[in-house]
Amino acid sequence: MTQQTTATEPRFFRQWSMPTAETFALPPVSALLDRWLTGCVVIVDPFAGNSTRGTHRNDLSLATDAQWHLDARDFCWELQRTGVVADAVLFDPPYSPRQVAECYAGVGRAVTKADTQNGRLYREVRDGLHQLLRPGGVAISCGWNSGGFGSARGYVLLEVLLVPHGGAHNDTIVTVERKCASGDVQEAGSP
Fold first, then answer.
1. 159 closest CA partner among 191, 124, 125
2. What is the DSSP pairing of strand 133-143 with strand 172-179?
3. CB count in 10 Å sphere of residue 104
4. Is residue 180 within 8 Å of residue 138, measured between CB atoms?
5. How far apart are the first and last CA of the chain?
6. Whole-prediction pTM
7. Which end of the chain is more exposed for a tag (fewer CB within 10 A), N or C?
8. How far, rounded to the nearest angstrom, does the alpha carbon of residue 172 sit from its chain's CA centroid?
9. What is the pLDDT of residues 113-150, one digit of tens each?
10. What domains are there in the chain, each with its CATH number?
């Protein structure tokens, strides 16, 4: 069975902003979240930092406002165990192996080579979030690439936001995807 997509193309935006470690505080990202999270009752954020966008917020650091302070994979598993079903999931992990190492060092946790394999971390956390997100729900991913959750998991890309920061800074790339029912990629609509 082949998956079909509609003629609806994702929207692409580019808006400059000063860099900050708190992605959701970037004005263009904040505006995107305002649009896409309207009406979402259950929002899961496994890398929340001090953001209060999520209703279920996790961060390794005890110095943050997050409700939970678990490894992001364990956090997703715990929410699955308790039957949480999300309307939206936010994926804003450390973007590089150096950032992973800094996060672990900041909480006094030894970092191993396996811990800095962020491709593995990304896949495992996305898999956990995928299990939590209801069909029709929205997945918003931030990072230095536009990979998102992907069509292989049954998501359709709705929007891409590029946030350049000037100089030698990498752009922050935000993707918005909708989880389709039964893996069928169909028209997903906009906010």
1. 191
2. antiparallel
3. 18
4. no
5. 30
6. 0.89
7. N
8. 12
9. 777 777 888 899 999 999 999 999 999 999 999 999 99
10. 11-183 (3.40.50)
